[in-house]
Specification:
The protein is elongated. The model has no long low-confidence stretch (mean pLDDT about 85). The chain is built from twelve helices and twelve strands.
């Protein structure tokens, strides 16, 4: 950081940034001052000093209050990010004071969450009980975005389904295989294996439109010059099984996830002959070498678990 940059950061203070965010959110200097238990004149003085520091107007003042200028919108975005990071830092440091020796934020897609992470994270916590893991389930595209933006230390997903994943580092984790699920009395249930195209004459129960499974289905249908007869969308694999069991259509899900589901009687599992039905789940990070020690321990553990566990394709 050069000298002018250091001077800029020294002239900023967190209290002023917090006041600026409050003014933008309330749309009024008076309301923000009341919220922060300060005199309106003191808040106004801090905002004027802030505008002098950045060298441009940040607020447009009018009869109804204030609104941020384009520069103000940019500062608002960064100020919120800074304040959020400080809140996270305070929370994580307080956990160290309480005996927690690490904190890893993990975002994973539904396939990894259902099929592999319960056992793998359970064995990790058993060996490292002082490390806290925050796990959130998201679509693969959202997992990649969270890692890019720093909202997650580690992502676990189908990176191929997330085209914005350029610039991230990946490590192989697991492999899963999509299968067709149909009611036991369905005409397709008589087959041990089928191409996905054979299911396009029937209604489907699908996941969210941005899920990696639905994207794979859609691309396969487009290659056939067909469309998917989507009867209903559901948010999870258990709901998909229930809908299929009750005759609303057929659907695609990972084989191991289906095998782990409870009460899947009355459903048939049909192998797909399509190459794209076999998919790779990767560990994703901005830079594995720069991860905190606790996160690197988790990456090493997940990679070791994957190497020891043979998943049938």
């Amino acid at each position: 950081m050069n000298a002018p940059d250091r001077a800029f950061t020294r002239r900023l203070d967190l209290t002023t940034l917090q006041l600026f965010v409050a003014v933008c959110e309330r749309g009024s200097i008076g309301k923000a001052a009341e919220q922060e238990f300060m005199a309106p004149s003191a808040v106004s003085k801090r905002l004027s000093d802030l505008e002098s520091t950045v060298g441009t107007a940040l607020l447009m003042r009018h009869a109804r209050g204030v609104t941020p200028t384009p520069a103000g919108q940019s500062l608002l975005h960064h100020a919120r990010s800074v304040l959020f990071s400080l809140d996270k830092m305070q929370g994580e440091l307080s956990e160290y004071a309480d005996g927690v020796r690490g904190h890893v934020r993990v975002h994973a897609n539904i396939s990894a969450t259902v099929q592999f992470l319960p056992e793998d994270l359970g064995s990790f916590i058993h060996a490292h009980d002082a490390i806290k893991i925050d796990l959130e389930e998201h679509l693969s595209t959202e997992v990649v975005r969270a890692v890019q933006e720093g909202a997650a230390d580690l992502g676990i997903c189908h990176v191929g389904a997330a085209p914005q994943g350029d610039g991230l580092q990946t490590l192989p984790y697991r492999q899963d295989t999509l299968v067709l699920i149909a009611p036991a009395r369905h005409p397709l249930a008589a087959h041990a294996e089928l191409p996905f195209a054979a299911s396009l004459d029937w209604d489907h129960v699908g996941l969210h439109a941005n899920s990696s499974i639905y994207r794979a289905m859609h691309e396969a249908a487009v290659r056939e010059g067909r469309s998917i007869r989507l009867r209903i969308r559901v948010s999870g694999l258990d709901a998909m099984c229930r809908m299929i069991h009750n005759g609303l259509g057929v659907g695609l899900m990972p084989r191991r996830a289906f095998e782990l589901m409870h009460d899947t009687g009355g459903l048939a599992c049909i192998s797909l002959t399509d190459d794209w039905a076999t998919r790779h789940i990767d560990l994703v990070a901005r830079d594995f070498s720069s991860l905190p020690v606790s996160a690197r321990l988790l990456v090493d553990h997940l990679s070791a678990q994957a190497a020891r566990t043979a998943i049938p394709s």
